[in-house]
User: Fold this.
Amino acid sequence: MTEQLQLKLQTLPEKPGVYQYFDAGGTIIYVGKAKNLKKRVSSYFTKTPENGKTYLLVKRIVDMQYIVVDTELDALLLENNLIKKYQPKYNIQLKDDKTYPWICVKNEAFPRVFSTRHLVRNGSKYFGPYPSGKVMQTLLSLIRELYPLRSCALDLAEKKISEKKYKVCLEYHIGNCLGPCIGAEPNEKYSEYITQIEHLLKGNSQSVIRVLKQQMLSHSEKFEFEEAQALKVKIQNLEHFQAKSTIVSPSIHEVDVCTLIEEHDGAFVNYLVIHNGSIIHAYTGEVKKKLDETREDILGYVLPELRARFESSSKEVVTDLALDLTFPDFSVHVPQRGDKKQLVELSLRNAKFYRLDKARQEKIKDPEKHSNRILEQVKKDFRLVDLPVHMECFDNSNIQGTNPVSACVVFKNAKPSKKDYRHFNVKTVVGPDDFATMEEAVFRRYRRMLDEGQSLPQLIIIDGGKGQLSAALKALEQLELRGKVAIVGIAKRLEEIFFPGDSLPIYIDKRSESLKLVQFMRNEAHRFGITHHRNRRSKGALTSEITEIAGIGQKTQEALMKHFKTVSAIKKASLEELTKVVGAAKATIILERNGFGEGDND
Assistant:
């Protein structure tokens, strides 16, 4: 297995989709569908092949690509299209070239409505395709019950009807047809039926379901239970029916879809070619910026390039970005609703998954490059002059003003540097004063760093809003560091980012890697601070009896707890045991305390 393939396997999404395997020559040798891409594709390489052909397939796989879709049904339809397009060596090829059926509304006078597996672009309307023949037959049966349509193949041109060339058939006599062939049914009424049928096939079935339910209740009231049950089954099938798919849409004949997601040094582009309502080409790639090109610049460049590469001749391109450019051989627009809007959203999802894959692979393969990319994004989002290789985050912790502490976590190269974490037991603040506590912690942290000649961080993050940020700024002013070190506050409720001197916050994209990093730092500071706070309260509760003894300080207390572990053990210790730990003088003081020295009674 190649290194590139191993990386892709580790970062596959757990989404439905279609995967394609390539051999050393870049030829597609297998196309498959999956409800869960990660589980399905990984199974080829983690399980022992059940037969020799599967073993040979896996042995020849050099690379893999995938397309994410909404549902397993979409994956099934797309797999069918790609197999017919590329005819991979290891896929089953049906000799009869079976395709999924469509429902056709024929382009003719008094149109027929029937199923077909062959699309003829003669003005007829096609709806589908339908992977489930049962659903399609239910729809056709429903249409026949609701609407008296003709089923014959006669040419019902107005001239021939007026010449009375036809006679009615059995369908007329049993009430399934109203006899348009003899002029017994007006064209306007028949056209109204066709309009209603097209609405039904497009998915507007609620009005039809209401009619069916009324008929079902009517049969039930007449104790015609068999007829009522038959209608109930049809209603259930209709309610579970999906009239159209984001992968195949009969309303879209030839169109290209192109979307991109911009990064600080480039963009990820997804390109789809739609022909006869089906995806026949799908491409996702990365474009590197040479200068500071905009999204419009990138899209204007890649569109003609990709169209030439895939030899697309469609006259329309849909995207998520409006362009001022005018191309000579095709038009570009941004759809606001409908099937084309869904295709744009599908294209964007594929671009996003590709970006996530690249990031995960980069993190595994080149951690330093991955860190630098995130830091570049932080630099851009937080308006920094220097790359924030060293960042620090502060958080306060107290419960009703007791045992107030502050925590400072340190991140270097976008990763926690736990050996540099620091906590501060507040010394100068009385009572629950969050602002003063923050000021003291920031002042003590950077006073010491200056005294010891340590390098300062490029970014300081304060957990809190404008109040906490102002308190931290006071500390920096006292140290003459304001303006020399970048500092921001992050408010938890809406993830608002406050900058010094700005009364209004900014909001960073919730999906941005820079915001995710800052949130991680904030959560880490909270965890580190609350852990220390709990330890202090626990330690204080356990050792309160010792600290109340006059002449016993914190160091003596720590020495006793380290050796004896519990207050109970200290109380039972003899003079000799205490002397070994804290000396004779302090051992005597402890023994004189009521309740201590119980082990020295003998």
Summary: The chain has five domains: 3-86, 102-205, 254-362, 378-535, 548-600.
